């Protein structure tokens, strides 16, 4: 498996459905330094895997509550990212954005909250795909991306924006 063309995307189903949520307020974006799980050590948005019986939106809100002790207000769906790893693992990430929240962001066992200016997002410390789709999301586009990873290394990608 070396390129996206080696995958049948018509029948592809991610092993784990998951969410990512970005809070954007006052020209700043709230990110986390992830302390555990997939991507530990990287900077990312708060998020995680869907639990049985919950909707994607419920998952998005719960993960922000668990990781940062705040509740995003009215998150809106922004796009999807389909990640296939060469070892066979796959994850289908549904991304949300909110412009406000209740509470005060706090460090937890899972994450350290970090605010960045929108023109200073630390892409070099994030997953390699983030620089492909996050700028599009910030411009207000909806997106659907497909990515092939070998561990941390992005081998191939394709992004559709709407
Ligand atoms: N390539 C890439 N770019 C951006 N974001 C991500 C990826 N791959 C990913 O998996 N992610 C995101 C999607 C999810 O929000 C997390 C992965 O979920 P994780 O934190 O491991 O899931 P939890 O359910 O919280 O796991 P536990 O630690 O509680 O077991 O990363």
UniProtKB/TrEMBL annotation:
Reaction equations catalysed: 8-oxo-dGTP + H2O = 8-oxo-dGMP + diphosphate + H(+); 8-oxo-dATP + H2O = 8-oxo-dAMP + diphosphate + H(+); N(6)-methyl-dATP + H2O = N(6)-methyl-dAMP + diphosphate + H(+); O(6)-methyl-dGTP + H2O = O(6)-methyl-dGMP + diphosphate + H(+)
Enzyme class: hydrolase
GO biological process, one term: DNA protection
Listed EC numbers: 3.6.1.56
Domain Nudix hydrolase: 14-139
Example of a GO MF term: dATP diphosphatase activity
Any one of the GO CC terms: cytoplasm
PROSITE patterns, per database record: NUDIX
InterPro entries, alphabetized: 8ODP, NUDIX_hydrolase-like_dom_sf, NUDIX_hydrolase_dom
Cofactor field: Mg(2+)
Reported function: Oxidized purine nucleoside triphosphate hydrolase which is a prominent sanitizer of the oxidized nucleotide pool. Catalyzes the hydrolysis of 2-oxo-dATP (2-hydroxy-dATP) into 2-oxo-dAMP. Also has a significant hydrolase activity toward 2-oxo-ATP, 8-oxo-dGTP and 8-oxo-dATP. Through the hydrolysis of oxidized purine nucleoside triphosphates, prevents their incorporation into DNA and the subsequent transversions A:T to C:G and G:C to T:A. Also catalyzes the hydrolysis of methylated purine nucleoside triphosphate preventing their integration into DNA.
Subunit structure: Monomer.
Listed PANTHER family: 7,8-DIHYDRO-8-OXOGUANINE TRIPHOSPHATASE, OXIDIZED PURINE NUCLEOSIDE TRIPHOSPHATE HYDROLASE
Protein name: Oxidized purine nucleoside triphosphate hydrolase
């Amino acid at each position: 498996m070396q390129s996206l063309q080696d995958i049948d995307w018509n029948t592809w189903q991610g092993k784990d459905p998951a969410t990512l949520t970005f809070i954007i307020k006052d020209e700043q974006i709230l990110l986390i330094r992830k302390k555990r799980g997939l991507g530990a050590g990287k900077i990312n948005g708060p998020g995680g895997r869907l639990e049985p019986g919950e909707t994607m939106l419920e998952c998005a809100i719960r993960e922000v509550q668990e990781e940062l002790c705040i509740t995003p207000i009215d998150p809106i769906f922004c796009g999807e990212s389909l990640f296939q790893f060469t070892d066979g693992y796959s994850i289908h990430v549904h991304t949300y954005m909110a412009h406000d929240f209740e509470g005060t962001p706090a460090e937890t066992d899972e994450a350290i909250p970090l605010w960045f200016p929108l023109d200073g997002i630390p892409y070099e410390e994030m997953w390699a795909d983030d620089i492909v789709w996050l700028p599009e999301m910030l411009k207000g586009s909806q997106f659907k991306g497909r990515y092939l990873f070998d561990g941390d290394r992005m081998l191939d990608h394709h992004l559709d924006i709407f």
